Batch of 3 targets.
Target 1
Amino acid sequence: MSELAEKRILLGLTGGIAAYKAADLARGLIKQGAEVQVVMTDAACRFISPLTLQALTGKPVYTSMWDDRVGNGMPHIELSRDRDLIVVAPATADFMAKLVHGTADDLLATLCIARECPLMVAPAMNRQMWENPATRRNVKQLSSDGIIIEGPASGDQACGENGMGRMSEPDQIVESIVSWFQPKLLAGARILVTAGPTYEPIDAVRGITNLSSGRMGYAVARAAHEAGAKVTLISGRTGLQPPANVSVIDIITAQQMHDEVMERLSECDILIAVAAVADYRVSNREQHKIKKKAGAGLTLELEPNPDILGSVAAHKDGPFCVGFSAESQNIESHAAEKRRRKNIPLIAANLVQAAFGSEQNELILIDDEGAHRLPRSSKLQQARGLIRHITRLYKPGRKSVTAR
Ligand code: CTP
């Protein structure tokens, strides 16, 4: 899928060893449909040849303020106009310092100052340079100037040291750019997302859980954040890295998830319940590890857990509620029945066999109008499709519409 179709991106390279990764970044952006114009500093040209970037982008690479190939002889103006975004990757400590001070001593720095579009930088430097108080101050200043900072990441560095400062991987930068371009359809909305499995203890070391990986819920939280919402993710144990800029509340049991959701209801406009919540918990739970008794069976007594989504939907003046329904057969009819039973305006159904443990999914969205299928794609793309659908149904300040 071309996530950056018709986007015009200026890719700037400054002089760091991570410049070699910029070739992959240029390819990744082009693969997503972007039109990429490369500008390099002299120092960047010492690490990677402009010819490499020219071959990958199919366009001449600019390096000098005095390049007369552009129409009006002013590349710093002409190259920065009609751009949707400038991305400087890698961005050295020196280049970030220049941006802070408005220094305009080469083509890339000058066109950054002359730009009319947003600017993203992907810092790349040695860990000590990243931790240096001057760099810390500069990063803070760039953020408050509205410049988007992507990364850096932590790990092995070209100099042989290990720590924070290496440039984000090209795939991560592309993903971040795609996220940044998502329309802010839910700006200002407060969204609660439940995700992952719950775990119901049997004794001190054993419990009942399920195969939910949490990936769909995390993708929904991320897509909601990309759409401009303030997102709180209430999550069972997943081991996943939470999406950036989302508040995460970790829970273990269904009762804890219920309590955390209820506590936040008054500050919630939309609830998206993606979690695979255990319907029952063990009522004869043991404090200590149960010892086996040779030849004897063991009976667990189960009592129902609260239905989190059901209780929120029943709440007077509750948020707009979206449910999930994992089915192993008869997806549409089971999900439609669940939607009616829970009295929610929208339910997203999927086939468990196609979703659990997989990177992809295939949702069917069921609302008052009927069923809407999202073609099979990554969970993040499915989540974006779901968010777009929610924005069509959700009216700020409105109580959930009654499901038929
Ligand atoms: N849900 C919830 N609290 C529960 C159980 C489920 O909030 N105690 C939410 C899930 O997060 C999901 C939806 O309700 O959004 C699923 O509905 P449910 O009827 O519980 O689905 P299943 O557990 O799959 O139901 P069944 O066993 O009847 O198929």
Note: The pocket of cytidine-5'-triphosphate is lined by residues 194, 254, 273, 275, 277, 279, 305, 307-309, 323-326, 338 (CB under 6 Å).
Target 2
Amino acid sequence: MAVKLIVNGRKKLSGQVDIQGAKNSALPILSATLLTGGENILHCCPHISDINAAIRILRYLGSSAYMEGHTAVVRCDNIVHSEIPENLMREMRSSIVFLGAIIARTGRARLYFPGGCELGPRPIDLHLNALRKMGVAIDERHGCISCKVCDRLHGARISLPFPSVGATENIILAAVLAKGTTVISNAAREPEISDLCEYLNKCGARIYGAGESKIVIDGVEELNGCVHTIIPDRIVAATLMAAAAVTGSEITLNGVISSHIDSIIPMFEESGCKIFIDNGKLHMTCPDNLSSFKSVRTMPYPGFPTDAQAVMMAVACVAKGTTVFVENIFESRYRHVEELTRLGANIKVANKVAVVEGVNHLFGAKVTARELRGAASLVVTGLCAEGVTEIEGINFLERGYENLEVTLSELGADIKKV
Ligand code: UD1
């Protein structure tokens, strides 16, 4: 029988929790270990299925990779493969993050793509165009991408039409060991990009401007392993903040980098929550009745993150008044809406706009998660719905949240996995 979460709603939360390490930082950094000689010790790697899948991919490629508590220990001295088999690709949708590193390490790569994903079509044209400019010949057919470096990877001037996170990462991974200098204009500025560059620079790379729109990478001959601590997950922080807001609770989150959630905090404040951050501790006191927060527009960083849209919508469902969402990053990122309406939410969607009218009460029901952040929004909504909410499809939740039900139980929620 499928594993489910059973939430008995309307319990207040209290207490403090530590925020797990960021999935979207840990994955590209695990991929980057392929470029290094010697040992990598990566602290604060979350125990989630996407990380397990990344470790399986590293092992298949020939690395020694294992977890000791929350520390990943990786050595990539003997890489023997340059392709990722279809079954491993299917385990982790974001395995495209291995492309640039495998090419840089082995001079070739072959990856299989299962087509669209839970968020709609996920094109990789920006990744491939950039790699071509750096000297990679690419052949795409039957859902398989074969890449081969013609001579040696070389630096290039790459201007991205959109600040794609994945493309920026793949270009950086291909550029650090390339001959000459690479300049990325309109690069993604997400904190996870800065974390990847900080890791690579510790390994001996020469990357300048991470976190800004223009990143300059001077290729080096080789990289060593290093010790690095993954940054805290800003989306997990936003999820727990949403959980506190909908239950009118008072909680403390440890290990928050406040600048990473600057675009999220104003929505919670507008809804009536009081937030105080000091020295990595975020203290939040939430009223019993929330107000709507007018509008949420997802944008590349430092704008409001697409990954926090679904959990913020859970808050809007019970905030008095109207909140308008505009999803600018992905086409199909409202798949949670149908399930939220099963719980009594009042939401209308037209293309990339969703209009949420807050209701006084939500009522527990059986719902099914269809993607990672949508799953989190169902958990948050279940926490404030009257009665029992049964959530199926929690394999999606486990891709990105480490034992979310345990964290929430420790804070006082009535939630269990069955
Ligand atoms: C995106 C998010 C990232 C989030 C991740 C997982 C942004 C800018 N990026 O990263 O914060 O953690 O999803 O949910 O919010 N695109 C192309 N061609 C490409 C690459 C991308 O057209 O080659 C388009 C995509 O269709 C999409 C947009 O660019 O509309 C965002 O893509 P990108 O940042 O690359 O996505 P991810 O790296 O998956």
Note: The longest strand covers residues 136-141.
Target 3
Amino acid sequence: MTDTPLHQGLRQNMVNNLRSKGITDESVLHAMLTVPRHCFIPESYGARAYEDAPLPINCRQTISQPYTVAKQSSLLEGAPLMKVLEIGTGSGYQAAILKAMQMHVYTIERHRQLYEQSQSVFKKLSLHIAGKLGDGYKGWAEFAPFDRILVTCGATQVPQSLLQQLKVNGIMIIPIGNENQTMTKIIRTSDTEYTTTLHGDCRFVPMLNDINM
Ligand code: SAH
């Protein structure tokens, strides 16, 4: 998995395009400039790696389009050394972006094949990301509480265990809805209180129950 000057040029164009679409968070833009997206998608789609489009990965899932990754990452307001939990590892690209933002990353995937492939990409790129095969509805109690939680599949409602695993003053970004969702930002303001703001329509693959081995 080489990263050539051509790839670097295509990433620079991608980042310029994200700026023109209103992304301003420099830590997000810098991460997207450095992470080789072409390493996270099937080779047959290699030529399209830096288009602003979602692309198919295995198990009938998709890698989110760069704009969506940038938008979710910006809303998350992450900072170095924060502990972040991602639900829906998929290709592993979003997790790698959070890692490039110097966060401690924990990520959960329910498809064994995607879990295993993402582990092997993390290894090849020497990314220290904690991954697990499991059901994201349950969160990851062993490492809770988290400063940030990022859900990259569409949930019909906010999973209770994820609310519980968020630190006070922590932020969760989660698409809520059925076929189409609303990007939702939840801030835990105290042990028992949460505030919610809405950030536009989006479309993610559904968050499903249980593991697919
Ligand atoms: N963040 C990914 C996008 C993945 S698409 C990327 O950067 O490529 C959403 C992923 O969520 C899919 O891989 C799907 O299998 C996974 N998923 C759906 N429901 C889940 C659940 N309950 N727990 C964990 N992962 C889940």
Note: The helical segments are 5-20, 26-34, 66-76, 93-100, 112-124, 160-164.
